[in-house]
Structure formats: structure tokens, C-alpha cells
Amino acid sequence: MNEKIKLYLKGLLMGTCDLIPGISGGTIAFITGIYDKLIKSISNISLKLFSDGIKYLTNKTPETEKEIRKDLKEADVYFLLTLGLGIATAILIGSKGIKYLWINYYTFTIAFFAGLIIASSKIIFDDIKKHSKQNIFFGLIGFVFGASLAFLIPVNAAPSHLYVFIGGFFAVSAMFLPGISGSFILLIMGLWDFMINVFTDIPGKIDYFIASASGALIGMFFISRVINFLFTKDRCKTLYFLLGLVLGSLLVPFKRIYENTVEWNLQTILLLLGLFFLGIIAVLIMHKLQKKKTPKTLKS
């Protein structure tokens, strides 16, 4: 199979998982063996590329053409464009299916998502090497912050364009974090279902789409550097904070299940539990596949 087609298909898989809270597209990148190349390509995109691009467009000379070609090669822009096209295709098409489930099977979909999210916390915990009291304290801070979101985020209020921009900014950080997906970030911010509606009606909500995409593009370059700094400074404290954030924010889906379940009977409870555990199993299987793909040198 053509390498570009393979890369596009990997993008489709990443985009599909990016729609679901609890499954990170970054995890899929790990499993399919393109994670390192993806991070390297993004980190190689700099202001120099944009400035050289402007120089080339305004003054086409052999020198400016040589510089822009060099910049494009270093950032592997064609790799990013092919992968990005696959991700975008999956999001635009897959969001319609997710929206159908959200409208017709709301609480059951949330239960599945809750299982995905709680399993993600195990992935983060497994990556923590030191369990000191100080590190655990950072976990408690994350838990309080995450739990507060269940009560501070207005679920039904129409978000502002600035809030959607901020959501896109932070959601893209999932590409660089273990066990956290962009959809999970949007879910705890009260934006996930709103953005699904945006993706299924882009012509009618193009302003919100641009706000989210702009936030994601800026966040892609900024957040990656911040996270890299925090991980370098103190990886364990950062991971404990993220672990607390994930566990605390579980109140968001559980609160929605409680508020929206019309009839509590044995059949409903068993179905909710079944979907919850199915979500846990799905993430653990993906994590196991990821660990098999990750070289031992990266695990140490």
C-alpha cells in the first residue's frame, strides 16, 4: 500500500479516537509508530518557516526558494498535512455518528466515556515513578480543581467565542499528554457536545469552528513547550496533578448520568455498568498495545 495512503488511514484512526473522551489520538500515534515523528515535526515548526514563507511569496528568488524548501523538509510539512487531512476527515464524518449516540443514548454514551476516562487514570499512574507526600499533594490539588469543574462549568449555556478558543487551545495538549484526550478536556470544560454540533454544522457555525481551530493551532506550538518544560522540571508532580485532574473531573460524567437517567431499574443499571467496564477494557487494551510498540529505552 502507498505510504501516503497508510499515513492518511492512521490519521483517520487518530481522528476517530480524538472524538471520544478517554482515548487519545496520541496513543494511536504511539501504537501505529508515528508518535516520535509527529512530535519532532511539530517542534520543528518555527516562526522562521512562516517568515521564510512570506519572503518567498513576496520575493521569489533561488535563495528564498531554497530556504523555504529546507524549512518544509525539516518540519516534514507534507507528513503533517497528510496526517492532518486524515484526522480532519474522521472528525467531520465521525462527529455525525457520535452526535446520533449523544442525542438518542445520552446516559449510556456518558457511561462508556466514564469508563474510558477512569482507565486513563491508570495509564497516568503507571507512568509515575515517585509517590512522595509532596507529589500526592499535587494530585490532591488536581483533584479539587477537576471536581470543581462539575459545579462551575455551565453545561447548557452557549459558550463565548473566547471560551471556545481556550477550549481548542487546551484540548490540543492531549497530543503530548499520557492518558488524556482532547475530547476529555472539552468534556470537563462543558464544550464537548457543543463542539460536536459545530463539526456537524460547520457552514452554520463557521465562527465557532474558526475560534476552536485557531486556539488549537496556537496551543499546538505553545502547550507542547510548556508541557515539555514541566515534565523536565518535575515529571512526577506534573503527572500527579494530571492524575488528580482526571479523577476529580469524573464527577462531570457521573453527575450527568445521575441528572439525565429517567428510570433507574435493574436493566438500566446493568447496561450502564456494562458500558462503563467496556470503556475501561477498551483503553487498557490500547495501552497494552502501546506498551508493546514503545521501545524499552523510552520506558526507562
- Share in helix: over 70%
User: Span between N and C termini?
Assistant: 34 Å
| Fraction of residues in β-strands | under 5%
Q: For the CA atoms, what is the radius of gyration? A: 20 Å
Give the topology string: H per helix, E per strand: HHHHHHHHHHHHHHH
Q: What overall form do the CA principal axes indicate? A: globular
Q: How many strand elements?
A: 0
Question: What summary fits the major beta sheet?
Answer: none
Tally of individual domains = 1
Mean pLDDT: 81
Class by alpha and beta content: mainly alpha
Low-pLDDT residue spans: 296-300
- How many helices does DSSP assign? 15
Give an account of the 3D structure:
With 300 residues, this protein is an all-alpha fold. It contains 15 helices and no strands. Helix 7 (106-126) packs antiparallel against helix 13. The radius of gyration is 20 Å and the shape is globular.
Give a quick precis of the structure:
Helix content is 80%, strand content 0%. The protein has 300 residues and is mostly helical.
